[in-house]
């Protein structure tokens, strides 16, 4: 009995000692199913909801791509093409282009696996892409730059040799797609990096829809942003609502417009003309990219649907054609 008691004491002491060297792990909370998608307020079959996934798509769920210093376990879902789609998209070595998919939700809610964004993942896979649909840390538990740090980590993870081999990904053909807050993150991913587009966290093409790409007070004022948009931006950045740019310097750091230069990848920018994000955001962004010599395709649809609510059959065809053209070109440029 004494020996057993001593062994138990040693075990308890050992666990206590180890706990001082290990982070307490926690998962990301999507903040409830009722707020899981930026389309949850409507039952209309619009946008991505008009897509039906074909048979043969393989989905690897909840794949861990990292653990941040605060203990957050970061996961993503990988949607892989069917054999038919693979034959269409693979290069001579059997490698596939990949697209990192970034959900919306005001940087404060949403989930990679809600019905709408799972459909985005399946749609990308049906087009021959390996789609990595990522979760990232959400406000107000964290503030900028946590979300973009997570997304960049996901791209770096996808380029690790083990993942390239596991999913047959071509490291030179990785793009990004995002809508709403995810569009902001996709655009920022494309503009704020430096160096070759086939290394680190850089991507070779970006398609973003309804992204608030200019978060400074000056840009929001110019575009006539609503109090609602100003409020969620302030919450995401950790600034006082109505604060000027001097009092909220992180607004510029969180804006894709800040970092535009000729080294940026080609962009597809989608927007609806009367939606909640001012159209001026996308128009000015596209004009700035063009002025810097960055190829850009601006697609404006009519109506008030937002984000993947405008991702109907026509828009999906345009996005897919853009991603294939740019990612195939990046492969040939090697």
From TrEMBL:
InterPro entries given in the database record: AB_hydrolase_fold (IPR029058), BD-FAE-like_dom (IPR049492), GDXG_lipolytic_enzyme (IPR050300)
Keywords annotated in UniProt: Hydrolase
SUPFAM superfamilies listed in its UniProt record: alpha/beta-Hydrolases
Listed Pfam families: BD-FAE
Chain ranges of the BD-FAE-like domain: 91-289
Lineage top rank: taxon: Bacteria
Single GO MF descriptor: hydrolase activity
PANTHER family given in the database record: AB HYDROLASE SUPERFAMILY PROTEIN C4A8.06C (PTHR48081), ALPHA_BETA HYDROLASE (PTHR48081:SF13)
Protein name, entry field: BD-FAE-like domain-containing protein
Protein species of origin: Agromyces aureus
